[in-house]
Automatic annotation (TrEMBL):
Gene3D superfamilies: PucR C-terminal helix-turn-helix domain. Residues 144-197 form the PucR C-terminal helix-turn-helix domain. It comes from Baia soyae. SUPFAM superfamilies: Homeodomain-like. Pfam families: HTH_30. InterPro entries: CdaR-like_regulators, Homeodomain-like_sf, PucR_C-HTH_dom, PucR_C-HTH_sf. This is PucR-like helix-turn-helix protein.
Length: 210
């Protein structure tokens, strides 16, 4: 289905004076002047930007039945800062796409892990991969989708089951199977972060091997 993205974006940000720039096919730069944002501290600014990104993503999923990839940048106060932030957005998109392609929302202020893994040399990747459990799980699309959604929903079982359109018990069964396969329980925050890190490293290794 062909989507008029300019119209769709304007309908979502209906109360805001937006500047929309189509940088490539189905790729849009959205710039929002917001004086209220200037009065908030950096954490509040970031939370507000993330909230708008999540709201837009949910609308794409519910109204269009599709997906979007959103790169969120920081507030800028000058044209020079704008170009610098756009460069950071491009780098964040490029690195995250290779390491975390299923992540729908990426921010320029939270790319440390991408930068770290992207900087690993081949021999370092080999050393790290050697201690990652070898299992068909890593190539199981359904299980990888389950892990991704569970992490996106902050380890919330009920919300993850709802987003995946499966019964809560089905999700619990999958989580237990993952624990048995790799020895990490996704319901435990530290274990969940380890599994996410393993995914990133394996994807980076596959990308380097191409």
């Amino acid at each position: 289905m062909e989507v008029d993205w300019e119209k769709f974006l304007q309908s979502y940000f209906v109360d805001l004076d937006l500047l929309l720039v189509e940088v490539a096919y189905e790729q849009w730069l959205v710039m929002q002047p917001d004086r209220e944002l200037d009065q908030r501290d950096r954490t509040a600014q970031r939370n507000e930007l993330l909230s708008k990104a999540r709201g837009f993503l949910e609308r794409v999923r519910t109204e269009l039945g599709g997906e979007a990839r959103i790169i969120v940048g920081e507030k800028v106060v000058s044209s020079e800062a704008l170009f610098e932030e756009m460069d950071r957005m491009k780098r964040a998109e490029k690195m995250s796409y290779k390491i975390d392609p299923d992540q729908a929302i990426v921010t320029t202020w939270n790319t440390f892990l991408y930068e770290l893994i992207h900087s690993l040399q081949v021999h370092q990747l080999d050393q790290v991969c050697a201690v990652i459990p070898t299992t068909p799980l890593w190539s199981d699309g359904e299980m990888m989708k389950t892990i991704q959604c569970f992490l996106e929903e902050d380890l919330n079982v009920s919300e993850t089951a709802r987003k995946l359109y499966i019964h809560r018990n089905t999700l619990l069964y999958r989580l237990e199977k993952i624990r048995e396969e790799i020895g990490y329980d996704l319901r435990v925050f530290d274990d969940a972060m380890m599994v996410k890190l393993m995914q990133f490293i394996l994807r980076r290794k596959a990308d380097v091997a191409r």
